[in-house]
Write a structure and sequence with these properties.
Layout (H helix, E strand, L loop, with lengths): L1 H17 L2 H33 L1
Keywords: Cell membrane, Membrane, Transmembrane, Transmembrane helix
Organism: Candidatus Dechloromonas phosphorivorans
Family: Belongs to the UPF0391 family.
Length: 54
């Protein structure tokens, strides 16, 4: 999932450089959403892993 966030970020940067502001803005929003989902899932899995060890 982090890979997809990075891909959308690269698409947004390329779109912004070429002047496609609508595409760039959409790709940035998708990348931000995927990144935050990744962070939440990482925190949950880390917490569950700590609970299993005890």
């Amino acid at each position: 999932m982090l890979h997809y966030a990075a891909v959308f970020l690269v698409i947004a940067l390329i779109g912004a450089l070429l002047g496609f502001t609508g595409i760039a803005a959409g790709a940035v929003e998708i990348a931000k959403i995927l990144f935050f989902i990744f962070i939440i899932l990482f925190a949950v899995s880390l917490f569950m892993g700590l609970l299993r060890r005890k």
